[in-house]
Amino acid sequence: MKNGTLRVDGGVVIGWNGEGHELIPGGSVLIEGDKVTYVGYEKRPADHVIDASDKLVSPGFINLHVHTQLNVGDYLVTDVTKRDYLGANYFVYGAPPKDRRPGQTPEGVKVGREFSMLSALRNGSTTILDPGGGAGDYDDYVALVDKIGLRSFFSPRYRSHDTYTDADGGHYYEERPDKGRQSFDEAMAFIEKHDGACDGRLQAILSPNQAETCDAAMLQETAAVAKKLNLGIHTHVGGNAREFIEIVYRAKKSPMEYLYENGVLGEKTIVGHAVFVSGHSGMMYPVGDEVEILAETGTTVGHCPHKYAKMGFALESFDRYLQQGVNVGIGTDTYPLDIIAEMRYASRIARVVDGTHMAGRPADLFNAATVWGADALGRPDLGRLAEGSAADLLVINLKDISYGPMRDPVTALVDFGTGKDVETVIVAGEVVIDNGTSTRVDEADIYARAQAAATVGWDGWAARDWANRDVETITPPAFPTRNAGK
Question: Is the pTM here over 0.85, yes or no?
Fold first, then answer.
């Protein structure tokens, strides 16, 4: 509680001993204001008590890659017939025909962000890194972070090249230096105005959009500003084969070499995805070792396994990156924003890729979703429960038939859990999710507005598609609908 003290009592607490997580069965966590002041077995006096008996008390998860918009296209990829998606990793909202730049209404942008923030928080992500996607009112973005109650690392994205689809469905780039400068200046203005807003829950991070959409001068300026203002950097790289080829063609070097030579990689940099790198089975580009570049520079990878599994691709591999010394965090990307399920996807995919059940260990996945992500953000007070840490924590119900008999709650969570098991979410000492429901906003209203906004996007799909195809043509439903009266 922000006013008074709060004790979370009786559960299996995942505490931090200074070197790693440890279990404290029947433990308690004492919160004073926005800080944890005690973690252990003592039942110290408190003004308010949450009974967590038979439940797991976990640090809040660090979701290292969340696009807070509806991304209506990504809802369609789970059962996909849209073959052109694989070559470019873009739907029409990302690379439309040039004369049909898709627009979103202000309400659509707002509800997309509101829905995504709430969904991430309800599923256990107390901190998100939002890589600057979308447009709209960025003052409104700050207001939504304040309203929903989570932490966000964010600033508007910028880029020097726009992405388009031509009349034959081919994907191409167009340099836009004036627009690039404008977007960079808008990001700097946002940072100056809003860094540290929402009682410190909003922190700025530089967001050069994607490696292939930013020229060398823009990346070099990003590196200089990051050093001057002591800010972290996020960019997308290794997201699709088309991007890799574009950088090799344009810069005559691999994407990681391109970022490295322009000063962007380093201990305060997070790269989203890093799937399509030299040596990946889908690349046929054996030159160099981009994973080694990541390791040597201390750069973190924001790993989003479910997004790529939907397309039939995978990181090669989670364990290989760790073994080479790369710090890896977990992100959910677009939807679903369930970081608990994302840990399981990461584990299972790692085992398939490496061909061994010894890969994708639950401890590594839990660390990636907590302390490794927090450390990448420069926040050693997040992702762990110890005296002095931020009071961001979860109460998770594991006593359910879906889990079965249990010996190790962390392994059980990674193997069987979902965000629906999260009962209580506390951020900065405030209970923002209670009994699985927001204490701050009307969830039913947000869901209804999100459904309406997504429907508008789907209904208008043909007007933005390069071949004028509607949604039913691009991705038919799993089963046909019976006509009324039959």
Answer: yes
